[in-house]
Amino acid sequence: MAGNRWRFELFSLDFAVGALAFALIASYTLGSAGSDLGFAENLMLASRTSQALAYFAGCLFALGSMLLLAAIALLGLSFGFAIVTGSALVMLCALQFAGYRALYLGLAIGAALLTLIFQSMGVGGGEDTLPAASLPVLVRKPASSSRRSKGKQAPPGMKNSSKGILVALLSGLALGGSLVPFYSSMFGSFGLGAYAGLVLFCSGLLTATIFLDFCFMNIPIQGGSLGLSAYFKGSLPQHLLGLAGGVLCSAGILLLSLPFNFPAEAQPSHWAIAAAGLGGSLLAMALGLSLWRELAKSPGSVLRFLLVGALFLVVGIGAYALALDKTPPPPPSAVPQQAG
Q1: Which pLDDT belongs to residue 183?
Q2: Contact between 4 and 139 (Cβ < 8 Å)
Q3: Distance of CA 101 to CAs 225, 278, 295, Å?
Q4: Alpha helices in the chain (DSSP H)
Q5: How far, in Å, CA of 281 to CA of 26, rounded?
Q6: How far is the CA of 246 from the CAs of 17, 202, 242, in angstroms?
Q7: Stated pTM of the model
Q8: Are the CB atoms for 106 and 307 separated by under 8 Å?
C-alpha cells in the first residue's frame, strides 16, 4: 500500500517508531490501571535477565521483520509470507522440542519443510512473473553506471527468485527465534509481564532497525544504495502507513501475550493462539492473490504449488497447536490411589 517506490528500509523506520509508540501509550494507560502491579513496578522488579531477553528478542525481531519486507518486495505477499512462516515454524518447533510432544512437533516440522519445498518450486516456476519483475527499474535494480567502460558488463547477480527464497528463509529463522526468549522474559517470578515486556521488546526493535537500516541502505538487498535523505522525501501517507503497520504489529503482540496472564481456567485454547499468531500469514497470502492479483500472469502450475504448500502450512500450524495443548502425564505419585 505504501507504493513500489517506497523501499522497505524506509518503511521499517516508521514501522519501528509506531510499534514503540503504541507500546508506551498502552503501558502508561492500560498497563498502569487496576489493583495489580503496574507497568513501572513490573519493570523495576523484573530481573536483569528478563529485561535482556526482551530487548534481545526485539533486536532479533527487527532483523526478521526487515527481511520479511525484503522478501515481500522480491516475491510478493503470497510466496513471501508462506516461506517465512514455514521457516519460522521449523525454528519454533526446534526450540521447543520435548519428549512428550515430539510426535506433534515432528509432524509440524515435516509439514513446514514440505511447505518450503512446494513454495520454492512455485517461486522458481514463476521467476518472470514475480511481482518484483514489474516494479519500476528505479526500485528493482540500480541504474547502470555511465562510467562503466564499454565492452564490459556487470557480473550477473542472484535471481530475484533465489534471493527472495534465501531472504525469506533467514527472516523466518529470525522471527521464530525471537518468540521464545520474548515469552520467557515476560512470565515467572521475576518476569516483566506483558506491558513492560512489550516496551523493552519494541525498544530493541527500534534500536536494531536504525542500525540495520544503515547496513541495508549501503549494501541493499533490492535496488541501489540509499541515503538518509530518501526518508525525508516520502509523502505523508507513506509515513503514516509505516506508523500504522507498527501500531498493528505491536497491538497484535500484546493481545497474544495478555492471555498468558489469565488464570489457567480462563486462558483460551492454544489452537486459538496458534491460529492467530501463525494463521495471519494465510490471510496475507489470500490478499496477495485476490486484492493485488500477484499471480495473475503466472502459469497455472505456480498457483498449484502455492496452494499445495499452503495446505501443508495449515497442517503444520495445526500440529504445532496440538503440541502446545499436549501436557505431560502426571507423575505416578500424583495419581490418587483407590481405597482397598
Answers
A1: 87
A2: yes
A3: 47, 19, 38
A4: 8-28, 39-45, 48-75, 77-95, 102-125, 137-140, 160-186, 193-218, 236-257, 270-290, 300-325
A5: 25
A6: 7, 10, 6
A7: 0.87
A8: no
Sign of CA dihedral 200, 18, 7, 70: positive
pLDDT of residue 36: 67
pLDDT in tens, 18-67: 999 999 999 999 887 765 667 788 888 889 999 999 999 999 999 999 99
pLDDT, one tens digit per residue, over 268-321 is: 877 788 788 888 899 999 999 999 888 988 899 999 999 999 999 999 999 998
Helices 48-75 and 193-218 pack at an angle, to 10 degrees, of: 50
Q: Grid coordinates standing for 172? A: 523466518
Residue closest to 76 by CA, chosen among 299, 285, 290, 239: 285
Q: What is the DSSP string of 79-93?
A: HHHHHHHHHHHHHHH
CA distance readout (Å), 110 to 93, 165, 255: 10, 18, 29
What is the dihedral sign for C-alpha 134, 136, 140, 141? positive
C-alpha cell at 192: 516483566
Which of 151, 155, 89 lies closest to 116, judged by CA? 89
For residue 37, give the C-alpha cell: 502491579
